[in-house]
Amino acid sequence: MGEGRRGRSGSATLIARARTIALALPGTSEKLSHGEPTFFAGGKVFCMVDNDHHGSGHVALWCKAEPGVQAALVEAEPRHFFVPPYVGKSGSIGVRLDSGLDWAKVAALIERAWREVAPKKLLGEAAPTARARRARRPARG
C-alpha cells in the first residue's frame, strides 16, 4: 500500500519497517485513513502513521496505549515519545520512528497497541511468532 502523502525524506524505509511489524500480528489489516497508513485489528485502529502530518516535523506512529503509559513515556523520553494530536487525549502515544529509538521497543509498543483493541479470539493467536521477531530486526544488507 502507498505511503499516502510524500512526507519526510527517508520515511518510506521507517514506515515499511513498522508496517512489517504490525502486519505480522494476527488479524491485522491496513488501510489509508486521513491520508496515512493505518493498522486495524477487529475493525479497530491500533496504530496510525504520522509522516510529517500537518507539518509535525517527524515520522512517527500514533499507538493505542494502556492508561498511564503515555505520561510515563513522554516524561521519561521526550526525544522519542509525544502526545499526538486528536488521539492523545484518549491516552494514545506518539512514537517517533526517526529519533533512533530501538526497534525492539517500537515493536513492543506496536504489539501492546494491538492488544488494546484485538478481539479475544485474536489475542489467543498472539504468541510472539518467528515472523514478528524477525520483523523487529533490521534487514541484512
Give your account of this protein's structure:
The chain is of the alpha+beta class. The chain has a single domain (11-135), classed as Aspartate Aminotransferase, domain 1. It contains five helices and six strands; from the N terminus they run H-E-E-E-E-H-E-E-H-H-H. The protein has helices at 11-23, 69-76, 103-117, 120-123, 130-136, and strands spanning 28-33, 36-41, 44-51, 59-63, 81-82, 93-96. The protein has a six-stranded antiparallel beta sheet. Helix 1 (11-23) packs antiparallel against helix 5. The model is unreliable at 1-5 (pLDDT under 50).
Largest sheet strand order: 1-2-3-4-6-5
* Tally of contiguous helical segments: 5
**CATH topology title:** Aspartate Aminotransferase, domain 1
Got a strand count? 6
Number of domain modules: 1
Specify Rg, calculated over alpha carbons. Answer: 14 Å
| CATH structural class | Alpha Beta
Low-pLDDT runs of 5+ residues are 1-5
CATH architecture: Alpha-Beta Complex
Question: What oligomerization state is this entry in?
Answer: single chain
What tags apply to this protein structure?
141 residues, Aspartate Aminotransferase, domain 1, 6-stranded antiparallel sheet, disordered N terminus
Short description:
This protein has 141 residues and is α+β, with helices and mostly antiparallel strands. The chain has helices at residues 11-23, 69-76, 103-117, 120-123, 130-136, and strands at residues 28-33, 36-41, 44-51, 59-63, 81-82, 93-96.
Write the layout of secondary structure elements.
Elements (H helix, E strand, L loop, with lengths): L10 H13 L4 E6 L2 E6 L2 E8 L7 E5 L5 H8 L4 E2 L10 E4 L6 H15 L2 H4 L6 H7 L5
Helix pairs in contact: 1-5
